[in-house]
């Protein structure tokens, strides 16, 4: 009898919450959580890779090469003119613009699934570069299911990716530019 009462109360309360949240709340929460933690971080990081003003903002500087492909930049004597555009220059430019555009697209809910999937890929590449080329140690890399909760690579980046996985699977929700685009197309 008590189990049935508790079960019914549970179903009523959480069923009501699910109905209230509908298909708008979680996409918005995932986008805002990701953006509130990482939007400024990624935009600032991209800003360290480009020049000032126009057209400088469209040109990756040597700092971009040094951050994204350090051994290539070093091998070229830190002269971007000595670095082949294909594949290195293209990779650096795409990575730099991804840092600007993808977080903004996620915040606005614009092509959210694709932007979130691309951001997951970006974070994976960023992690690879940090481990392979920037010499981070085991304490920074950390490990899953260890007793430490604050490793900059495994722990933090896992938490970065979780809202993105939600957005890839479920989309931005009704409070997004994606929804406006769907309505406009119809």
Quick structural overview:
With 186 residues, the chain is mostly helical. 73% of the residues lie in helices and 0% in strands. The protein has helices spanning 2-21, 25-47, 53-56, 62-68, 70-75, 85-108, 112-133, 138-141, 154-170, 177-185.
The total of helices stands at 10
Rounded to the nearest angstrom, the radius of gyration is: 21 Å
**Helix-residue proportion:** over 70%
Low-confidence stretches are none
Number of domains: 1
Largest sheet report = none
Work out the number of β strands. 0
* SSE sequence, one letter per element: HHHHHHHHHH
How much β-strand is present in the residues? under 5%
Average pLDDT, rounded to a whole number, is 92
Write up this protein.
The chain has 186 residues and is mainly α. It has one domain (23-185). The chain is 73% helix and 0% strand. It is built from 10 helices and no strands. The chain has helices at residues 2-21, 25-47, 53-56, 62-68, 70-75, 85-108, 112-133, 138-141, 154-170, 177-185. Helix 2 (25-47) crosses helix 6 (85-108), helix 2 packs across helix 9 (154-170) and helix 7 (112-133) runs antiparallel to helix 9 (154-170). The radius of gyration is 21 Å and the shape is flat. The termini are far apart. 21% of the residues are buried.
């Amino acid at each position: 009898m008590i189990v049935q009462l508790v079960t019914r109360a549970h179903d009523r309360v959480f069923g009501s919450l699910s109905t209230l949240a509908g298909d708008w709340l979680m996409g918005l929460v995932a986008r805002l959580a990701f953006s509130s933690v990482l939007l400024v971080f990624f935009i600032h990081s991209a800003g360290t890779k480009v020049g000032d003003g126009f057209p400088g903002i469209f040109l990756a500087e040597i700092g971009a090469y040094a951050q994204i492909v350090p051994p290539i930049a070093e091998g070229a004597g830190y002269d971007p003119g000595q670095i082949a555009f294909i594949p290195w220059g293209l990779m650096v430019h795409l990575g730099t613009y991804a840092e600007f555009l993808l977080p903004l697209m996620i915040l606005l809910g614009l092509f959210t699934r694709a932007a979130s999937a691309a951001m997951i890929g970006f974070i994976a590449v960023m992690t690879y570069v940090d481990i392979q080329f920037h010499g981070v140690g085991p304490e920074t890399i950390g490990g899953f299911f260890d007793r430490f909760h604050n490793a900059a690579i495994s722990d933090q980046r896992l938490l970065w990716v979780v809202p993105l996985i939600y957005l890839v699977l479920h989309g931005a929700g009704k409070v997004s530019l994606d929804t406006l685009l769907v309505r406009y197309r119809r």
